[in-house]
Amino acid sequence: MTNPWQGPAEPPPARRSFSPGRLWAAGAGTAVVVALVVVVGVIVIRLFVKSDLLAPVDSGSYGDGSTTSYALAAAGAALAATALLHVLLLAMPSPLRFFSWIVGLLTAAATLLPFTFGGSFGHMLAVAAINLVVGLAILTILPSSL
User: Fold this and answer.
1) pLDDT tens by residue, 81-96
2) Does residue 81 form part of some domain?
3) Residues spanned by the domain of 34
4) Shortest CA distance to 126 belongs to which of 62, 57, 52, 76?
5) 1 within domain boundaries
6) How many CB atoms are located within 10 Å of the residue 120 CB?
7) pLDDT per position as a tens digit, 28-43
8) By C-alpha distance, which of 104, 131, 105 is closest to 117?
9) Which letter, b or e, does each residue of 76-113 get, where b requires 16 or more Cβ atoms within 10 Å of its Cβ?
10) Cβ-based neighbour number of residue 30 at 10 Å
11) Which keywords annotate this record (predicted)?
12) Based on the structure, what is the number of domains in the chain?
């Protein structure tokens, strides 16, 4: 005898199929994009604002190794986001929703983080803007690759 309070049994939600190779290729592409976002952002700020962002003004438009480290850190964040998305796709019922929330909150934190350090407000604002664009790039590019 069936329980009248339960109603019909619903089938389990279908698993989202994805290609891990394509996901990681998209992750590598995203890593390149966000590294370039950092480099272009630093160059624009140093060139047009004549700022000593990440290096003394006489270091040129690119700056120095700090710019490279910043770009590599952004690329690493994109690869970490790819790993996160891969795990969520394998284990979670609504992986893209969880991914969006996690990356969105991490982007908010990365955008606010520069304001917790010392330095000029202009430098803090510039780094916050670059971090925001990096986070938005990760948030939009990776899920669209599925």
Assistant:
1) 999 999 999 999 999 9
2) yes
3) 20-144
4) 52
5) no
6) 11
7) 999 999 999 999 999 9
8) 131
9) ebbbebbebbbebbeeeeebeebbeeebeebbeebbee
10) 24
11) Membrane, Transmembrane, Transmembrane helix
12) 1
| 14 within a domain of the structure (yes/no) | no
What is the sign of the dihedral through the CA atoms of 131, 136, 137 and 138?
positive
Rounded CA-CA distance 115/48 in Å is: 22
Model confidence at 108, pLDDT cuts 50, 70, 90, reads very high
Instruction: Please give the C-alpha separations between residue 142 and each of 10, 25, 97, in angstroms, as whole numbers.
Output: 31, 10, 13
Q: What pLDDT does 110 receive? A: 98
pTM across the whole model: 0.85
Q: Which residue bears the tokens 């120095």?
A: 64
CB 88 within 8 A of CB 99: yes
Does residue 10 belong to any structural domain of this protein? no
Structure tokens at 55: 């290096």
Task: Name the amino acid, one letter, at 9.
Answer: A
pLDDT of residue 54: 83
- Torsion from C-alpha of 124, 126, 132, 137, nearest 10 degrees: -150
Furthest CA-CA distance within the chain? 83
